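Lecture 7 notes: from sequence to structure.

We start with a single chain of 64 residues. Read the sequence below before looking at the structure.
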Amino acid sequence: MQQIEEKLAHLIRNVDDLSDIVTRQQGEIDMLTRRVEMLMKREGERTADSGGGVVLGDERPPHY
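Now the structure, written as tokens:
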């Protein structure tokens, strides 16, 4: 019975540790998601401000 209690205590500790890790990772994911959204918004605004000209691969640049 004592071995089972020891194993259970170790398992409970491992679950608690993993829960802390998952919680921390979720916070990092949320932060990174906000940053990506912010960068996409900035890029969209920058593209809109620059006239949104798209250069295709087969077009010559204007200086030719």
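The radius of gyration is 26 Å. Keep this in mind for problem set 3.
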